[in-house]
Amino acid sequence: MSAGMKKMILLPFLCIMLSHMAAGQECSNQCLCPSTPPQCPPGVSLVLDGCGCCRVCAKQMGELCTEKDLCDPHKGLYCDFGAPINRRIGVCTAREGATCVFGGTMYKSGETFQSSCKYQCTCLDGAVGCVPLCAMDVRLPSPDCPMPRRVKVSGKCCEEWECDSPIRQSFLGSALASYREEETYGPDLSMMRENCLVQTTEWSACSKTCGLGVSTRVTNDNRECRLEKQTRLCMVRPCESQLEQSIRKGKKCIRTPRLSKPMKFEISGCTTTKSYRPKFCGVCLDGRCCTPHRTTTLPMEFKCPDGQFMKKHMMFIKSCACHHNCPGENDIFESMYYKKMMGDMA
User: Fold this and answer.
1) I need a surface site. Which of 34, 89, 288, 295 has the fewest CB within 10 A?
2) Dihedral pair phi/psi, residue 301, rounded to 5°
3) What are phi and psi of 171, to 5 degrees?
4) Collapsing DSSP states into helix, strand and coil, what is residue 73?
5) pLDDT (average), residues 187-206
6) How far apart (Å, rounded) are the C-alpha atoms in residues 68 and 54?
7) Is the pLDDT at 86 greater than 70, yes or no?
8) 168 has a pLDDT exceeding 60
């Protein structure tokens, strides 16, 4: 059979499939949503569908889209339907924006790529943001695994946990032994509860040096004495803030400035119900960088455009420290330059 004949046979089938797909994506009068929202892959936004009905994983660059299945708005994507009369099926396309250069390669705005097997990155109007593909969990010592440590496994990209047996077996020695990036505050024998030695890691550094990011920690401070990962929002400083202009004459740094006017925080289109005047970490003129030193964690309530409310915990800065232990230029994965954030057990 010739190639032309194959195309003539396949074309009608393709048209029928696309027609059925478009019909299935039309909005109905009733919302039939799953009991739990879908788990989206790393870097894919969870958004409200075009019918204003259910939360779905946003379509990505080059994927088919409809008026119901929306393209990822946080990556500047839109559904290109081609001809104006065709409003049924389109392709997710990036809006015009600045390109990104990463590792000697140029990427279009809205394009997603893997910088390595450990990170997936997205170019958005000249800026590159990355999310880890490997698990970032922290494992605390336990009786069955007193000395946990991450090891490189042959043929695998991500490191895996391995349990070493200590030379000496003792309850306190087992609890104290740890090989991990985040140090614990314990064990504190005063926190000893029935069959549970409470341990909590320090909060990790904020995932972004400006704008809204996340910070995590691990604790077993719960009724089940079960390890759980806790997350809080954080903002070291607003992006595009002209903090250098606030440095007093004769000074080299502005360490912990506070906003002059109240502001509201925003995440995925949802805005805090209250206004805040938070402190931020400032900047220096002599090459030093300023990072959080003392912080506290407070609950916040957000209101979304669809009328729903959600509660998140947020890091609030008490004081910052300015130092020379700064990350290298374009080192977007470097977070060890942060000083330890002390005095925050909330």
Assistant:
1) 34
2) -110, 135
3) -65, -50
4) helix
5) 69
6) 10
7) no
8) no
